[in-house]
Q: What sequence folds into this?
């Protein structure tokens, strides 16, 4: 806004000059401003002795400003150029030449600085909307430094100052500490046994971890989803149960233990059971019902009394 006000003031002063100019001029549709000010020679080819007359401050590094057909006609009239708009749509776009240090370079430099300040911590940074690219003069060495780093982990915020080519700029944003948690690499159906190969690790914001989230992969291996579980989502302790190793109606292998003697036979399970649970099984030959302990997939053990 201040630049537009400066341009308006400059135009007003030039309008009061009442100059006359005989040679024709040509409008430039796009201008790369390399200096601190916009001149007549930037806007019109053929401005002659008035080419160096300053109209207004140049845009900020990497920024643009637009002179409308109305602005251009006022400039022309002030200097007697005789330029006239043909359709009211002409404009001159003026861009200040600059070298861009983009958001990714800024983030990498900030991450390096934070890594030194927070050893053995993983974190995520989110810039405020105004913390975008940093522009420096063209052809300058783009050696970016992060200075005066300040952060508050309890509030999850950071502030710092960027420095490059003699220019400085403040940045700010959010800082989130991350925690690695186990998740399923592929969706898993209810009752399927989870193995180590089913698990991968992902980083999530520590503040987003619920109280009952499983954070140790060992707590998942050998268990089964209570319901169908999607991939790459955190898993709550209530989402997993001991798998059903013996299902009602299945034929199971029964190991009979009596002292040093181990015998095996087949029986039918009369109820479901997880590892270590007691289930009833029926010997298909004698029709005798026995209490057995689930020891594995479709496997149970019966200890003979007195052994």
A:
């Amino acid at each position: 806004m201040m630049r537009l006000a400066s341009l308006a003031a400059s135009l007003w002063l030039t309008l009061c000059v009442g100059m006359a100019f005989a040679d024709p001029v040509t409008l430039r549709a796009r201008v790369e401003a390399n200096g601190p000010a916009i001149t007549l020679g930037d806007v019109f080819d053929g401005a002659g002795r008035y080419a160096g007359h300053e109209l207004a401050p140049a845009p900020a590094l990497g920024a643009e400003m637009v002179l409308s057909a109305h602005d251009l006609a006022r400039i022309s009239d002030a200097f007697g150029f005789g330029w006239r708009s043909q359709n009211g749509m002409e404009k001159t776009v003026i861009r200040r030449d600059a070298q861009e240090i983009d958001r990714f370079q800024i983030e990498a430099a900030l991450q390096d600085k934070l890594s030194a300040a927070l050893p053995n911590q993983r974190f995520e940074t989110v810039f405020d909307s105004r913390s975008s690219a940093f522009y420096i003069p063209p052809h300058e060495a783009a050696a970016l430094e992060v200075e005066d780093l300040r952060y508050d982990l309890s509030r999850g915020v950071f502030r710092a100052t960027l420095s490059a080519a003699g220019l400085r700029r403040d940045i700010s944003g959010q800082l989130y500490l991350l925690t690695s948690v186990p998740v399923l690499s592929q969706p898993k159906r209810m009752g399927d046994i989870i193995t180590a190969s089913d698990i991968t690790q992902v980083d999530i914001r520590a503040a987003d971890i619920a109280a009952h989230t499983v954070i140790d992969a060992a707590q998942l291996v050998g268990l089964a989803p209570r319901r169908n579980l999607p991939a790459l989502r955190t898993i709550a302790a209530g989402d997993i149960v001991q798998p059903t190793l013996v299902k009602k109606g299945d034929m199971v292998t029964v190991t009979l233990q009596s002292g040093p003697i181990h015998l095996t036979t087949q029986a039918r399970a009369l109820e479901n059971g997880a590892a270590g649970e007691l289930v009833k099984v029926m010997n298909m030959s004698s029709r005798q019902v026995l209490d057995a302990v689930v020891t594995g997939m479709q496997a149970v053990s019966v200890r003979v009394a007195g052994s």
User: Anything to note?
Assistant: The two ends are 95 Å apart (CA to CA). The chain has four helices and 23 strands.
